[in-house]
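Reopening this one. Same input as before:
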Amino acid sequence: MSYAIPADEPGGVAPAALSLLVHGLLFAMLVFGLHWQSRHPDPVVAELWSELPAVEPAEPKPEVKPPPNPEPRVEQKQPKPDIAIEREKKLAKKKEEPPLKFDNTQRIREQLAQEQQALNRTREKQEALKQFAPPAAPVGDPRYIEKIIARIRPNIIPPADLKGNPEVIFDVVQLPTGEVFSAQLRKSSGNRLYDEAVERAILKSSPLPKPERADQFMRELTLKFRPKE
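Same output, byte for byte:
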């Protein structure tokens, strides 16, 4: 024989209790959340000081004295053995001996030989230079110089106020054709007008006369002039 247990009806006590418990939990959580959000922070307390508190000075550290220096030990000199004494005697004897004199004769001979060789080389160089030296300048023929001065003198027109008989000297450079290349005043007569008159006469007399022989030609001439000659 079997019995059937009747099922709880939908409108029973158990569902109502469960629903009431859930609503209570939700209400508690809502109240706790509102209380946590409305909580104010704790106040901060600060103290103000008008003066700083006095600081007590630190206690001085006790002075540590260094330990006393130990007394130096005096080493006793041991007597030198006989071998060291003999060696010192030999060294002292060598110092007392006079230095040996060397014969300087050989050294003097070698020095004289070197000087003689240097002298011979100098003479050889001088002889070689003489062979390649330029030939001596040609000696001017007095008649050739007089012929040139005779060509220039008629072209000199001295100033009217010239006094005395002053001398003027010109260095003249001529070409092989006799044409005057330059006329440079070496010594002034003291009268500028007379110096310029002689310079104009030299340039006007170009070309100058040629010598009788070609070897008597002089490229550089030193010509002297006086107004009364």
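So the earlier flakiness isn't reproducible anymore. For the record, Strands lie at 168-174, 180-187, 220-225.
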